[in-house]
Design brief:
With about 300 residues, the protein is an alpha+beta fold. The protein has twelve helices and nine strands.
Length: about 300
């Protein structure tokens, strides 16, 4: 037999290969999660068939469906009426039209989008409902290198782990550890590291979470050595935060380790020891406690450094 199955247009509108995403779209629409974007983001572009907000929504659906670029909108979204309907769309803009909308965005639109995302965070996240009286809030700040093409915005040569002479961007983010939620994410050029981005990232997080002085006093910042300079630590202390991190200067760390009077071996690693730094300091705005850590060198010398 050489018979084909013909599916009517009405039936096709109710069929999607992305069932999980359809369910997510329905929930997003029910909760009105994207409403702040429609209210805040005003792109100076004429509406012909679809509004700028609707085209932004089409782009978002494409990202959620796994698209690596806007070129995949036609294949992943425009060809799936059921998926469009789940997000409240009765159609989908052509991929080049969505790109034109993004090209029309200005710096003001970026700030509007950030304000909208902050509103969504405050309305929907767990971190904004954290009970500071019951427990500390733990916030982690870090940077991750993202290699990209030389024509991408902010693309420049910088440090990218195990990839020499690559161009890319640095992604800075603030994460609420207990809840696995990203509070703030920002893109920087390839040369920017945490010693430059820490304060702007935390200022953005502070605004997003609307942290009061009392809440900051119950918030612990965890940072790597990139955010461990005296200037950054003092800024965090002046803001009222508690801070847990590494010293920015390896040479200073070696000097401080000399003041340790008693080393304690890590019960889980015999080649690792730690001890309280006894040398006093007045370089910080508030009293701090410092621990020196040393590990056995892998050269076989038998010495701990």
């Amino acid at each position: 037999m050489n018979e084909s199955i013909i599916i009517s247009d009405k039936a096709r509108e109710q069929i999607s290969a992305r069932t999980g995403l359809v369910g997510l779209g329905i929930k997003v629409r029910q909760l009105g999660i994207l409403a702040p974007i429609e209210e805040e983001v005003k792109i100076g572009q004429k509406t012909v068939k679809y509004t700028p907000y609707e085209k932004l929504t089409d782009g978002l659906i494409a990202i959620l469906s796994g698209a690596k670029g806007l070129v995949e909108i036609n294949k992943r979204v425009r060809s799936d009426p059921a998926l469009q309907a789940a997000f409240g769309r009765d159609g989908c803009a052509e991929q080049s039209v969505v790109q034109d909308t993004l090209d029309a965005c200005t710096g003001s639109n970026v700030k509007q989008m950030q304000a909208a995302v902050d509103r969504i965070l405050r309305a929907q996240s767990q971190v904004c409902r954290h009970d500071y009286c019951k427990d500390w809030l733990i916030i982690e700040v870090d940077m991750t290198g993202r290699p990209c093409g030389r024509k991408a915005e902010f693309a420049s040569k910088g440090y990218f782990a195990k990839q020499r002479n690559r161009r890319g961007r640095q992604e800075g983010y603030v994460v609420a550890s207990q809840y696995g939620e990203i509070v703030v994410k920002r893109i920087y050029d390839g040369t920017t590291q945490l010693n430059i981005a820490l304060q702007p990232l935390m200022q953005a997080a502070q605004q997003a979470l609307e942290l009061t002085a009392e809440q900051r006093a119950r918030t612990i910042l965890r940072v790597d050595s990139g955010g461990g300079s005296v200037e950054d630590v003092n800024w965090a202390l002046e803001q009222g935060y508690q801070i847990h991190g590494k010293d920015y200067s390896g040479r200073r760390a070696e000097h401080l380790a000399e003041s340790v009077t008693q080393w304690v071996t890590d019960p889980r690693d015999a080649d690792r020891q730690m001890g309280w730094v006894t040398e006093t300091t007045d370089i910080y705005k508030r009293p701090v406690k410092r621990i020196a850590v040393r590990c056995r060198k892998t050269t076989g010398s038998g010495r701990l450094e």
